[in-house]
Design goal:
Shape: globular
CATH superfamily: Nucleoside Triphosphate Pyrophosphohydrolase
Distance between the termini: 43 Å
Order of helices and strands: HEEEEHEEEHEEH
Strand content: 25-35%
Structural class: alpha+beta
Number of helices: 4
CATH class: Alpha Beta
Helix content: 25-40%
CATH architecture: Alpha-Beta Complex
C-alpha cells in the first residue's frame, strides 16, 4: 500500500525579502492550479531526481530570471494537497532587475499587508487575496525574525 505522503506533490518555494518587504507573485487565474488568482511565494514542483535547492533555483530562474546568491532552508509545510519546502534569502536586485515569466503580477508586500491578507495588483487593477499557506509561512517567518 502506498502512503499518502509519497503521493502528494512536493514543491520548493522562496521567501525573497528586501528592506523589510517580501516579493510575491500573483498567480494566474487558471482553475486547475492551487490558489489561482492569489498572491503567493515564487517556486514550483520538484522534478524527479532534482534536489530541493536545485528545484528552487531552477524555478526562480524560470519564473523571474533570478539566480539568488544564497538561499537558506526555512521549513517544511504540509497539508493534504502538497508538501512545501521553504527557503529564504535576500533579493539583491530591484523589481526592474527581474522579468516576470509566470504569473499575472509580482510586487513587494509589507508585513502589514501580509497580516491583512490581501494586496492590490497594479497590473490587473484588483485587490486579490494571499494564498492561505503562503500567508501563514510569511507570518511565521516574520515572527521568527522578530525573536532573533
Amino acid at each position: 500500500m502506498t502512503s499518502n505522503l509519497t503521493e502528494r506533490p512536493q514543491v520548493a518555494i522562496a521567501i525573497l525579502h528586501q528592506d523589510g518587504k517580501f516579493l510575491l507573485q500573483l498567480r494566474d487565474d487558471i482553475p486547475t492550479i492551487l490558489y489561482p488568482g492569489h498572491w503567493a511565494l515564487f517556486g514550483g514542483h520538484i522534478e524527479p531526481g532534482e534536489t530541493r535547492e536545485v528545484a528552487m533555483r531552477r524555478e526562480l530562474l524560470e519564473e523571474i530570471g533570478y539566480a539568488p546568491p544564497l538561499l537558506s532552508p526555512f521549513g517544511r509545510y504540509e497539508d493534504d494537497r502538497v508538501i512545501r519546502h521553504v527557503y529564504h534569502g535576500s533579493l539583491t536586485v530591484g523589481l526592474d532587475g527581474l522579468v516576470l515569466n509566470e504569473g499575472a503580477d509580482m510586487d513587494w508586500v509589507t508585513p502589514e499587508e501580509i497580516m491583512q491578507g490581501d494586496r492590490y495588483s497594479r497590473r490587473i487593477q484588483q485587490i486579490r487575496p494571499l494564498g492561505r499557506p503562503h500567508q501563514q509561512i510569511l507570518l511565521d517567518f516574520i515572527a521568527r525574525q522578530r525573536t532573533l
